[in-house]
Amino acid sequence: MAEQRQTRGPASVEKEEAEEEEEEEVRSEVPDSLSGKYTGSFAYLTIKDRLPKILTKAVDTVHRHTDVFFAQHGQEGVEAEKRAIGLLSKLRNELQTDKPALPLTDELPDVPQWNKYLEQQQARLGTEENTSWFKAPWLYMECYMYRRIHEALQLNPPICDFDVFNEAKTQGFLESQQAITALSAHLQEINKNVKSFKQTQIKAELLHVLQVALWGNRCDLSISAGLANSQKLNPLTSLESLKPFILIDDFEFVWSHLICSKKKKTSETAHTRVDIVLDNSGFELVADLVLADFLIACQLADEVHFHGKAIPWFVSDTTKKDFDWTLKQMKTSSHPQMSKCAVAWEEYMTKGVWIYQDHPFWTLPHEFCDMSLVANDLYVELQKSNLIFFKGDLNYRKLTGDRKWSYTVSFETALRGFHPAPLCSLRTLKADIQVGLQPGLGEQLAGSDPDWMTSGQYAIIQFSNQFRK
Fold first, then answer.
1. What one-character-per-residue DSSP string does 184-227 give?
2. Torsions phi, psi for 100 (to 5 deg)
């Protein structure tokens, strides 16, 4: 297994020339999108099996809250619940019978962009029928499902703020208490001694917290169709055994970049800014907060910006409500290590050392290469960053366009011009797309483990600084 792990050093001239030739070829023809039209593919199985289960669970969750809706809103709440269930059931039927995508009707601010995107898809794919669940690009349809779930609630006040995924997210956090406590205690121990750390110690500890944040990405409730998927054991004890499963390990590039950014600060007022585009709430969010705390404590960053979702998304994705709830739960915990962490983190938020943002672009269906055109304000904001961490599988799919790239195509090529700042993907593989692998590695893995791209057993720390000219 150890030979499957990839640690990249300086490329030879011959390798650079070969990569440039390959990239020139793929630039002229962008691969097709992953789609349910490919029978038997992971996209097909997701649409056929996993997405209907998520919708069924959403219907059940709304129904089980009938008494709550009645207590809060009287009969009006009960009637709204029935209408919402009707819309969710209709959505499930559309999916299972492969109906074309329909325009959104809830009149939220993002509706014009969603409906414009649908029109563009219809024009690109040729007919309205080709925008159906199994024929359209998987990335679009999966995002569309979660936006339609939100629409079903939005169209039915007074229950329009109900989060159908909240119970699952809460359960995921509570079931991870042991792991969160261990991680909090580890951070407290680091912070006691960090001022006396030599650079080698800082590097070693950064590697640990970065790997915890990486493997925390396995706690993904959308991939488990909302079933329990928490982190129950101390994550620090398994890091060494998991190293062989990191297929691309660009930690040295990340470290060098952070050190260079720190050294380049020209005045006391200059700031090193790190952005974290969040993925899952629960244990993964706590692991991301620990990473952010460490970056501040060892002065590798002066400011951390967190980017979450504006609406409930992909079951367990982090919203502002989830972010605030997590800090509150940890602050009031009976475990002093957790409480101390949350008190410090709230102070970071109050002082503006940490900043939370939830731009609506993160819940649009666009690939990230469209960001500068669709959400230029967000792109300009990200350009202020010294380093952006993109957490998780959905962010990787959007970074690479969720397309059928060959395994060896470079990360920079797959980004297709998206590069607001140096960036790093921290991802456990849960979708059948991966770029930047050494020749032959993808085929070797496919031969030994047919589910290597979708099981969450493998991971990447994949860094991109700039494009080669």
1. HHHHHHHHHHGGG--HHHHHHHHHHHHHHHHHGGG--TTTTTTS
2. -65, 155
Q: pLDDT by residue (tens digit) across 177-219? A: 999 999 999 999 999 999 999 999 999 999 999 999 999 998 7
- DSSP code string of 322-381: HHHHHHHHHHT-SSHHHHHHHHHHHHHHHHTSEEEE--GGGGS---GGGHHHH-HHHHHH
Q: Which option is the CATH number for 167-464: 2.102.10.10, 3.50.50.60, 3.40.50.10880, 3.90.1150.10? A: 3.40.50.10880
For 6, phi and psi rounded to 5 degrees?
-120, 120
pLDDT confidence of residue 468 = 37
**CA–CA distance, 457 with 126 (Å, rounded to integer):** 38
**Model pTM score:** 0.92
Topology, domain 42-161: Transcription Elongation Factor S-II; Chain A (1.20.930)
pLDDT tens-digit readout, 139-152: 999 999 999 999 99
Phi/psi for 467 (5° steps) reads: -85, 140
Instruction: Report the C-alpha gap between 221 and 239 in whole angstroms.
Output: 22
Task: Kindly list the domain boundaries of the chain, sorted by start residue.
Answer: 42-161, 167-464
pLDDT band at residue 20 under the 50/70/90 scheme: low
Say if CB 306 and CB 359 are below 8 A apart: no
**pLDDT per residue as tens digits for the range 104-147:** 999 999 999 999 999 999 999 988 888 999 999 999 999 999 99
